[in-house]
Amino acid sequence: MKDDDGYRACNPGIPLEGDISDEERKKLKSKLIKTLNWIGVKMPGEIELNGKKLPLSEVVWNLLNKKECFTEDEKRVIADLEMALEKKLKEDVKKIDKDEQKTVAINHYCEALGLMRAIISLKGMLASDRCERIRLTKRISDRRKEETENWLNFLKDLKSL
Question: How would residue 80 be classed by pLDDT, with cut points 50, 70 and 90?
Answer without folding.
Answer: very high
